[in-house]
Amino acid sequence: MENAAHWRESLTVFLDALHQKKALDHRHVLIIGASTSEVIGRNIGSAGSEEVAEELFQEFASFRDKTGVHLAFQGCEHINRAITVERETADRLHLDPVSAVPHPRAGGAMASRAYRKMKDPVVVEHIQADAGIDIGDTFIGMHMKHVAVPVRTSIDAIGSAHVTMAVSRPKLIGGERAKYSLE
């Protein structure tokens, strides 16, 4: 695809900004919501693209290999936004797999591609991620840990898809006497 290199380059900018805000590693989960339709300028859910999904997956896999972060791919509304992860991730987080296999018409092209490319994939109903990237306004917030903090970068889109990102931080609890550091 003629835009593939540009999509991957843009995704790299986003992932680098996310990693700069929060140093992601093997202890963390990255939730990914991606509308491949939106990337190619179509409405979400209308024109899923296996080619776009493959290009994005390769970049996410490279980021995982570099950082050790666990990848979690949100499916579409037709599977209740269930999450595709590797079984190792589900076991580590004590998540119960559900009986679903994402495909392009129920789950979306991105989750479908991830399921086919991941090592021993399973689908789980919920996850609480440490960071997230939302490509095409897929609404990943339901799968983020509290408290989500927006991350900004120099660009705001991959192809035609609007992109938002967030990292989580611990809640600041207590009253006026509470302290949040040893100083």
TrEMBL record:
Gene3D superfamilies per the record?
Hypothetical protein TT1679
Q: Which organism is it from?
A: Sinobaca qinghaiensis
Q: Which protein family is named in the record?
A: Belongs to the UPF0340 family.
Query: Which superkingdom does the taxonomy of this entry point to?
Result: Bacteria
Q: Which Pfam families match?
A: DUF436 (PF04260)
SUPFAM superfamilies in UniProt = TTHA0583/YokD-like
> InterPro entries of this UniProt entry?
Antibiotic_NAT-like (IPR028345), DUF436 (IPR006340)
- Which protein, by its recorded name, is this? UPF0340 protein ATL39_0294
